[in-house]
Design a protein that fits this description.
CATH architecture of the largest domain in chain B: Beta Barrel
Radius of gyration of chain A: 21 Å
Shape of chain A: globular
Structural class of chain A: alpha+beta
Number of strands of chain A: 13
Number of helices of chain B: 6
Number of domains of chain B: 2
Structural class of chain B: mainly beta
Largest interface: A-B, 48 and 60 residues
CATH class of chain A: Mainly Beta
Oligomer: heterodimer
CATH superfamily of chain A: Lipoprotein localisation LolA/LolB/LppX
């Protein structure tokens, strides 16, 4: 009997490290979420809208975020083309969920508070929706995440996670290939509300280490039905930098100045 | 020589290096794309604008042979100079056409200097500003005189006159405070020729209203006595006002005070001589104060909008025939961003109620006590006037095409105006726009301005290059 107890204890001790390090859907997504956390960020972005016939239209935006007390504020400035130049967009996350949003349109010369778009509208005519621009994956507590496999993609080992949103969402489910080394999404498939029809897919074209942080520097979103695609090039990215709160005000939105 | 000088100026402007705003140049390193940004603390100069031409065909229902096509050119230039704490902006518009005379007031559409201080700014110059929470239609927007010389169009700023103004804004936390001062009175602009295309009232109705015997059309030889421009720029004609706006959770609430004038001129007829069928028409302006509010409430994809106020006229008792009476103004609107799309729809109801107004039946030829001045503001002889406005904006083909449908319906007179348009971004800097204007009234209708513009239905084609 004593030997049996010893044997069980030995098996537990041997098995424990394997058990402790076995990944699950939520644990992978938690690491992905942690890898993207920052108190502040600044990105200079080029969007290339690619028609199925190869015609390309380019847009240029800069976006800043600041997270304080777990609430994130984002300011986005549209730099080109001429038709949208100097349009500015401010989003402030509210306690208890939801966002306050304001837009400054140079054509009308004033700011206007606007209703939340529910995220599903196209962002600047691209294949990204407003909610895709905020995040292409669901947070740990926003969906049921299941590890459904592992695969090598672009020569990199990846976990495959299926995420089914807990609340009503733009998509019925997403399937994400998460890089095992850096916990970045290498590929994301977005399915319609029926959970079967593939609507869009996102491919990470280039990942890069920027100031000690791995980021997806170039990515392409393709709409399956239209074959239209949008490529995002992050020209510059900075994280956890000192950020002037004045950028996240309606005053900056209207004037483009911080004093 | 003069043409050559203009050509040189245009060439100089075109060949200037163009700086875009700017971006967050204090955060990002030297940009990888040259067109973006110089550090904000550096002085910079930028030019934006558009150049193009247009064709507008007016269909005359009464006499199709009188239908015309108006050819116009268009050059809009916005110049912006940014200093460390001072900006200067100038907007010019050169839009000559075969039909319309080009006036200086149309050329200088904005000219201002802005000085910034901690938490605010002061602007001085020729400015266009907009107050009110609703989409396009307002009842508390007192900052600029309206411009109806080209009828109505679907661009609210294009229907405003840039006015000399000093405007200060200060913000702290969720509160914004605006104060303005205008040194002179710029009256509402409208077609001066009573037989002109965009005259605000048809000549027959005007003759009837100005008749010394109400209800009977008598054409008088009227001598107009308008205030001289110098009289309108006296200190006594200056105006001022303020607005305090507060964000309260899902609410935006603004309180407004304005001390100025009704933009519409008041008038009275005097020295009637029935032997010679002559008379004098004296035009003046009514000083008034507005106590108003504007509010916005956001609930998911829905925006609720409200504006309202009370105009306190210098003629408080409504006894002076050349002055406007006190009146209430009100507006309620709803805007919806259709979930899952970028389609935006809005619906607005607005109106006013004139106090101490004696209602009358315009179809009764024996009305002898019609107050012609108040009647201009009323609808169908009633003390009130109510209007419905709807607009739908549909982006298509990944925002290459923007379809807009806007329409307004005046309830008492059954008059309507429809303003559909289609904008096609052929490329990022080349835009084609087709728009229409349709006016009329349902049934026989009463004296509606839209009925008076019945022969101004038009289709306009424009092409513009953005730079």
């Amino acid at each position: 009997m004593k030997r049996i107890k010893f044997l069980i204890a030995t098996i537990i001790l041997i098995a424990l490290p394997f058990y402790a390090f076995a990944q699950t859907g939520p644990s992978v997504m938690q690491k992905l979420q942690d890898s993207q956390k920052a108190t502040s960020s600044a990105m200079d972005i080029k969007l290339s809208l690619v028609e199925p016939n190869g015609e390309v239209r380019e847009r240029r935006i800069q976006t800043l975020t600041l997270t304080e007390n777990d609430l994130t504020s984002t300011i986005t400035v549209f730099l080109s083309p001429a038709s949208v130049k100097n349009t500015r967009f401010l989003t402030k996350e509210k306690k208890g969920g939801g966002d306050d949003q304001w837009i400054f349109l140079p054509a009308i010369g004033r700011i206007k508070r606007i209703a939340a778009s529910e995220g599903s509208g196209s962002f600047m005519g691209s294949d990204f929706s407003y909610s895709d621009m905020a995040s292409t994956t669901y947070d740990v507590d926003e969906a049921e995440h299941t590890l459904i496999g592992e695969e090598s993609i672009y020569g990199r080992e990846a976990y495959i996670i299926e995420s089914i949103p807990l609340a009503a969402s733009d998509y019925g489910k997403t399937v994400i290939w998460v890089d095992k080394e850096h916990y970045l999404p290498l590929k994301v498939e977005f399915y319609a509300k029926d959970g079967k029809t593939l609507v869009k897919h996102l491919l990470a074209n280039e990942i890069k280490n920027v100031e000690g942080r791995w980021i997806t520097k170039v990515m392409t979103m393709t709409t399956v039905a239209s074959k239209h695609s949008t490529r995002i090039d992050i020209l510059q990215a900075k994280y956890d930098i000192p950020m002037n709160r004045g950028y996240f005000t309606t005053s900056f939105l209207e004037t483009g100045r911080v004093l | 020589m003069r043409k050559f000088s203009i050509l040189l100026v245009v060439l100089w402007i075109i060949t200037l290096p163009v700086f875009a705003f700017e971006g967050f140049a204090d955060i990002f390193d030297e940009p990888e794309i040259e067109t973006v940004a110089s550090p904000s603390e550096k002085r910079s100069f930028g030019i934006t604008g558009s150049a193009g031409f247009s064709l507008e065909g007016f269909y005359d229902k009464s006499d199709p042979k009188e239908s015309i096509i108006d050819v116009g050119g268009g050059l809009d230039i916005d110049l912006a100079w940014r200093g460390s704490i001072v900006d200067a902006n100038a907007s010019f518009s050169l839009r000559p056409s075969l039909e319309n005379e080009l006036e200086w007031i149309d050329v200088f559409t904005g000219l201002s200097v802005i000085s910034y201080f901690e938490g605010g700014r002061i602007e001085a110059g020729l400015l266009k500003k907009e107050w009110g929470s609703a989409d396009g239609v307002h009842v508390v927007d007192v900052l600029n005189a309206p411009d109806y010389r080209n009828g109505i169009v679907d661009d609210p700023l294009a229907m405003k006159v840039a006015e000399p103004m000093l405007y200060t804004t200060a913000s702290w936390q969720n509160t914004t405070f605006d104060i303005f001062y205008k040194p002179m009175l710029i009256p509402m602009l409208s077609e001066e020729n009573p037989e002109g295309r965009w005259a605000m009232m048809d000549i027959g109705a005007l003759s009837s209203m100005l008749s010394p015997i109400p209800g009977i059309d008598i054409t008088l030889n009227i001598t107009e006595h308008r205030p001289e421009r110098s009289q309108l720029s006296k200190f006594s004609k200056s105006q001022f006002g303020g607005r305090i706006k507060q964000i309260l959770g899902p609410f935006d609430l603004g309180l407004i005070y304005y001390n100025g004038f009704y933009y519409e001129p008041g008038f009275y007829l005097d020295n009637i001589d029935l032997d010679f069928l002559s008379g004098d028409l004296y035009i003046d302006f009514t000083r008034a104060q507005l106590f108003g509010l504007e509010a916005t409430f956001i609930a998911g994809p829905v925006t609720l909008m409200a504006e309202g106020g009370f105009w306190l006229s210098e003629d408080m008792k409504g006894e002076k025939p050349d002055k406007f009476n006190n009146k209430w103004v009100y507006l309620a609107g709803v805007g919806v961003l259709i979930p899952g799309t970028s389609v935006y729809a809005s619906f607005t109801y607005n109106g006013h109620y004139i106090m101490d107004f004696k209602e009358y039946d315009p179809s009764d030829p024996f009305n002898f006590e019609v107050d012609t001045l108040q009647a201009l503001l009323s609808s169908d002889g009633k003390a009130y006037s109510n209007t419905l406005t709807a607009a739908l904006e549909v982006p298509l083909a990944r925002e290459k095409i923007l379809l807009r449908l806007a329409g307004t319906y005046q309830i008492e007179t059954n008059g309507y105006a429809l303003l559909p348009s289609l904008k096609w971004n052929i490329s990022d800097d080349l835009v084609f726009k087709a728009s229409g204007r349709l006016f009329g009234s349902i049934g026989e209708g009463s004296a509606s301005i839209f009925k008076a513009w019945n022969d101004n239905n038009s289709v306009k084609l424009e092409i513009g290059y953005l730079f």
